[in-house]
UniProtKB/TrEMBL annotation:
It is found in: Cell membrane. Residues 301-314 have a biased composition (Pro residues). Keywords: Cell membrane, Heme, Iron, Membrane, Metal-binding, Plasmid, Repeat, Signal. Residues 297-326 are annotated as: Disordered. This is C-type cytochrome. Residues 44-147, 189-296, 325-412 form the Cytochrome c domain. It comes from Skermanella cutis. Signal peptide: none annotated. InterPro entries: Cyt_c-like_dom, Cyt_c-like_dom_sf, Cytochrome_c-type_DH, Membr-bd_ADH_cyt_c. It comes from the Bacteria. The lineage of its organism: Bacteria, Pseudomonadati, Pseudomonadota, Alphaproteobacteria, Rhodospirillales.
């Protein structure tokens, strides 16, 4: 009798828990509307929405390669599978044409679609929840006045049980802190504007923060460095590994132009971010730079003196121990493929904008960015221009790229050796995530 009572209690508790979860997971549908006419929106609000969409990098994640703007289909690779950006043009059948302003606000603030479905956090509503209602209305006005495009996004490629969207209600219960950004009264207006943008619409921490096993940002480690599509997004806090400390002016230059001479050229997922920011006023870029510089403990005033230039590249050695042979081979590859641009006084008139002894990619705790730059090259901030650096994926083997990467790390950064470089190169070449 006691066993049956216990079993009945367990079943009752399980049923109550399932019912409670169902109540938590259920979200109502918001009634569809007729697509509003362009004349329904104020021109100034549309213009403000355009600026906000550029800050949010909306175009990149909601446009397939070679596709129509905002028509969806961009494949976002995550550790759990591939999530495709949705169509956010005002097409009534495949886009958001039947979404009201309230449906749009709910998606941004709560991660719930118009039909009541929970959205995957590949759409960073854990940041967008900080956006004000006013800015959401401006974004809505801008998107609803774009060209409608009929385009179905490809289905997401996720394993079971992740295709069961009600589970996302549990994820939100654990990790979503909903609510608009609240200004810090002890800080300046510029700092608060930068914090609002960086933590909200610009969602800097979505890439620059490490993730836990469930894909949520690790608590207490905001801006401590993370991964995005196989690239390492470096730490934007006091643990930054940059050989030359960042300043507010250096951060502004990098976000404005894609280049900081003492640090890096915007590459990988950061390149389209900078291209989109070209449509954003200087004041907002300066505000983000002010906020991030403060988090990094950046010094006031001009940048510190850069480190002394490295000695000339060593001559490759023939014979010797295995380690010496590897270094000799790598030095020979560098002399033939890299020194023409990366050594002072090289034979080419063009010189790389960032000296390798200052390159953030070679000072990072992992080799992801250095390897991807060698394999795939580096584009200019202007995507229509010629590449800033060609890729060597077709010229060098995995072993050669690994040896060159190890040699560059030793010569230009002096940091501890990176492990398993050949495996890292194979992952980068295949396009698999290094996360």
């Amino acid at each position: 009798m006691r066993v049956s009572h216990i079993a009945g209690g367990v079943l009752l508790a399980a049923a109550a828990g399932a019912a409670g979860f169902a109540v938590l997971a259920w979200q109502p549908e918001i009634e569809p509307v007729e697509p509003p006419a362009r004349a329904a929106f104020d021109q100034a609000e549309i213009a403000e929405g355009a600026k906000l969409a550029a800050l949010g990098n909306c175009l990149q994640c909601h446009t397939a390669p070679g596709g129509k703007p905002f028509a969806g289909g961009y494949p976002l690779e995550t550790p759990f599978g591939t999530i495709h950006g949705t169509n956010i043009t005002p097409d009534p059948e495949t886009g958001i044409g039947t979404w009201s302003a309230e449906a749009f606000r709910r998606a941004m603030a709560e991660g719930v679609g118009r039909s009541g479905e929970h959205l995957y956090p590949g759409f960073p509503y854990d940041h967008f929840t900080r956006v004000t209602d006013r800015d959401n209305r401006a974004l809505y006005a801008y998107l609803m006045t774009r060209e409608p495009v009929r385009a179905e996004a490809p289905p997401n490629r996720l394993p079971l049980p992740l295709t069961f969207r009600p589970l996302l209600a549990g994820w939100k219960l654990l990790f979503l802190e909903a609510g608009e950004y609240r200004p810090d009264p002890e800080r300046s207006d510029e700092w608060n504007r930068g914090a609002y943008l960086a933590e909200g619409l610009a969602h800097c921490g979505a890439c620059h923060t490490p993730r836990n096993a469930l894909g949520a940002r690790e608590a207490g480690r905001e801006f401590a460095g993370g991964f995005s599509e196989g690239w390492y997004a470096p730490a934007l806090d006091r643990d930054s590994a940059a050989p030359v400390p960042w300043t507010r002016d250096a951060l502004f230059d990098y976000l404005r132009t894609g280049v900081s001479e003492d640090h890096a050229v915007a590459s990988g997922p950061m390149a389209p971010v900078v291209r989109n920011l070209s449509d954003v006023p200087d004041a907002d870029i300066r505000a983000i730079a002010t906020y991030v510089a403060d988090r990094m403990g950046a010094p006031d005033g001009p940048a510190p003196a850069p480190p002394a230039p490295p000695p000339p590249a060593p001559v490759a050695r023939a014979g010797g121990e295995e380690r010496g042979q590897e270094q000799g081979r790598a030095a020979a590859i560098y002399a033939g493929a890299c020194a023409t641009c990366h050594e002072p006084g090289g034979p080419l008139q063009f010189q790389a904008p960032v000296a390798l002894d200052r390159a953030t990619s070679l000072a990072q705790p992992n080799p992801s960015n250095a390897i991807r730059a060698i394999l795939h090259g580096v584009e200019t901030p202007d995507a229509a221009a010629q590449p800033l650096m060609p890729g060597f994926a077709n010229a060098l083997t995995d072993a050669q790229v690994a040896e060159l990467t190890a040699w560059l790390r030793t010569r230009f950064s002096g940091g501890p050796a990176w492990d398993d470089l050949e495996a890292e190169v194979a992952e980068a070449r295949s396009g698999r995530s290094a996360e």
